[in-house]
Design goal:
There is one protein chain. It is globular, with a radius of gyration of 15 Å. Helix 1 packs antiparallel against helix 2. Strands 1-2-3-4 form a four-stranded antiparallel β-sheet. The protein has a four-stranded antiparallel β-sheet with strand order 5-6-7-8, covered by helices on one side. By secondary structure, the protein is α+β, with helices and mostly antiparallel strands. The protein is built from two helices and eight strands.
Length: 144
């Protein structure tokens, strides 16, 4: 029996290695993730895990970041917020791949930047993760 895939808000995987992932913990309600999560960062130089959380109200901010990056603009999710912020800069765009820099800052002591080469559909993949999480949390997201 295969284990169901964990809920993730984002899962950016470089074509040549490196990744930035925010995976949510399981809750006591089957099929509904908890707000506690782990920010997982990996490349050839560093591997790290930071406990964090994702509030259902954070989803709109992440959607905005994806819109900005799709339009070719830099964006930061949860800038100067209570938890680690994640910034994305589009460095270059070609037909078969994008070059991005993902910056993670924990507001206290650590700031890390990873350069990743990603497939052109990476933003659509992030939107699919966002939509999946938004659907299961629909009853928790304020409508105003």
């Amino acid at each position: 029996m295969t284990e169901p895939e964990r809920f993730a808000l984002l899962r950016i995987i470089g074509q040549y290695g490196g990744s930035v992932v925010v995976e949510l913990d399981d809750s006591y309600a089957p099929g509904i993730p908890d707000v506690t999560a782990q920010l997982l960062v990996h490349n050839d130089f560093v591997a790290g895990v930071l406990d964090t959380y994702v509030d259902p109200r954070d989803l709109a901010g992440w959607a905005h970041v994806l819109d900005e990056v799709a339009a070719g603009r830099d964006a930061v999710w949860r800038e100067a917020a209570r938890v680690a912020e994640i910034g994305i800069r589009l460095d270059w765009r070609e037909d078969d791949q994008d070059g991005i820099t993902v910056t993670i800052a924990d507001q206290q002591t650590t700031r890390l930047s990873l350069s990743l080469t990603v497939a052109p559909g990476w933003i659509d993949e992030q939107r699919a993760l966002l939509d999946r999480l938004g659907a299961v949390w629909a009853h928790l997201i304020p409508t105003d």
